[in-house]
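PROTEIN DESIGN WORKSHEET
SECTION A - STRUCTURE
LENGTH: 404
TOKENS:
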């Protein structure tokens, strides 16, 4: 770790050692880029897609975590520190410790931020005994405990508006909990309410058809175009607002499973990197090439990038390949020609052994892995096995090493 005041230089410096940063570093090494460093403050690496399974009782918490030192590709320099600013003029990243690191090329991928305090009472409700969420590692096992112990009452699930990491993931613990309650014979005694900010459940016909069938099967009450306005944690009520009519509704809950509004990391919003007019503070990039249009030494991908796709690990897996190829080309004095195809995906876990697998482009038009074959979008056991069993292995062993 560089000490305070020490100055260092790297050919490629990456801010954020999450899904995007580590897999990109691994891929760049494979492409023989020798001097790659990653700035990452956390000593543990989290595989977020498993959080939904932890909250829904189909995974243990330990499965989603590894030591950061164990996932950092050999040959990459890990700087355990936090970026606090980027000076585009002097090609320098400032760190919380006081160090400054210069770069030839900078890749900015510090992810997205959970804004728990942006809704009155929400943070307090999550800290209290009746709140849980799959959007925080610590709150996911708590959510499962609340679901597991419940025999009757009302459970409210919320999915926020605005940018989100894999926004459909808000619904996954709900389907898993409903399946659990049905198997326990108590589903009829539990009222399940879901508030989604959108006018439909997802926005793609075939996926909406599958999810609506499960919603009917489980007897879930969906409030469309509805947002969480506030929570009263001591009275255990939520206030929901229908954004189409302006009407508000107060619902008493026994358990609240909430997903927070999300935005770009606070420090990033005040740098030169977001687009003029800000666009939520995410890093401005050419959505095809993934290079900053005003600062050619800067690149971005993953949840922190202002790309057009729905943010997900599936999307950034494609982005990693494109960015690595383009950066390699530029380092060799060539033009960057690889283009991101706007693919994204969200595997909706709809029961303890089935998934509805949505694959789509930036306009939510279907983009199936096998072109012309939309069968994976139907509820299937095969896609559950792929998502729950195979994908975590692929993530730890191949994706993070830049090999998939
Ligand atoms: C509950 C949940 C379920 C999901 N399910 C799926 C799914 O089923 N399928 C799918 O494809 N995607 C899913 N996703 C989305 C996927 O996990 C994200 O898209 C992906 O992790 C984004 O990768 P990233 O590297 O951009 O951000 P992250 O993986 O969040 O990594 C960002 C890293 O940057 C670090 N960092 C933050 N600030 C700084 C700083 N100032 N300086 C240096 N480092 C910093 C953080 O510590 C972190 O390690 C899910 C997400 C969530 C939350």
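SECTION B - SEQUENCE
RESIDUE ASSIGNMENT:
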């Amino acid at each position: 770790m560089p000490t305070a005041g020490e100055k260092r230089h790297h050919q490629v410096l990456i801010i954020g050692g999450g899904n995007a940063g580590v897999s990109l570093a691994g891929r760049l090494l494979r492409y023989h880029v020798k001097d790659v460093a990653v700035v990452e403050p956390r000593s543990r690496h989290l595989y977020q897609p498993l959080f939904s399974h932890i909250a829904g009782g189909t995974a243990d918490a330990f499965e989603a975590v590894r030591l950061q030192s164990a996932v950092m590709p050999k040959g990459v320099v890990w700087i355990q520190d936090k970026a606090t600013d980027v000076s585009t003029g002097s090609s320098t990243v400032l760190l919380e410790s006081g160090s400054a690191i210069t770069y030839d090329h900078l890749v900015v991928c510090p992810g997205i931020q959970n804004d728990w305090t942006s809704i009155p009472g929400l943070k307090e409700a999550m800290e209290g005994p009746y709140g849980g969420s799959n959007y925080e590692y610590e709150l996911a096992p708590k959510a499962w405990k609340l679901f597991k112990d419940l025999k009757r009452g009302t459970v409210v699930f919320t999915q926020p508006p605005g940018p989100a990491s894999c926004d459909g993931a808000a619904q996954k613990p709900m389907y898993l909990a409903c399946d659990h309650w049905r198997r326990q014979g108590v589903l009829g005694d539990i009222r399940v309410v879901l508030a989604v900010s959108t006018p439909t459940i997802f926005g793609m016909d075939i996926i909406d058809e599958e999810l609506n069938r499960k919603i009917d099967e489980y007897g879930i009450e969906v409030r469309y175009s509805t947002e969480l306005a506030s929570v009263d944690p001591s009275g255990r009520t939520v206030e929901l607002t229908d954004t189409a009519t302006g009407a508000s509704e107060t619902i008493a809950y026994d358990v609240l499973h909430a997903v927070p509004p999300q935005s770009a990391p606070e420090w990033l919003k005040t740098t030169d990197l977001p687009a003029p007019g800000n666009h939520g503070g995410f890093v401005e990039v050419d959505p095809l090439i993934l290079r900053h249009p005003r600062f050619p030494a800067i690149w971005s991908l993953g949840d922190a990038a202002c790309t057009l796709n729905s943010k997900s690990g599936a999307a950034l897996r494609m982005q990693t390949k494109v960015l690595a190829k383009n950066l390699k080309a530029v380092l060799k004095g060539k033009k960057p020609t690889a283009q991101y195809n706007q693919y994204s995906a969200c595997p909706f876990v709809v029961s303890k052994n089935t998934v509805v697998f949505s694959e789509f482009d930036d306009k939510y038009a279907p983009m199936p892995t096998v072109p012309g074959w939309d069968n994976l979008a139907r509820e299937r056991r095969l896609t559950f096995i792929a998502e729950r069993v195979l994908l975590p292995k692929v993530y730890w062993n191949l994706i993070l090493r830049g090999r998939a």
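SECTION C - NOTES
Residues 7-41+80-112+264-341 form a domain with the FAD/NAD(P)-binding domain fold (CATH 3.50.50.60).
Residues 15-21, 39-42, 48-49, 51-52, 82-83, 109-111, 134-135, 165-166, 169, 265, 267, 302-304, 311-314, 316, 345, 347 surround flavin-adenine dinucleotide (CB under 6 Å).
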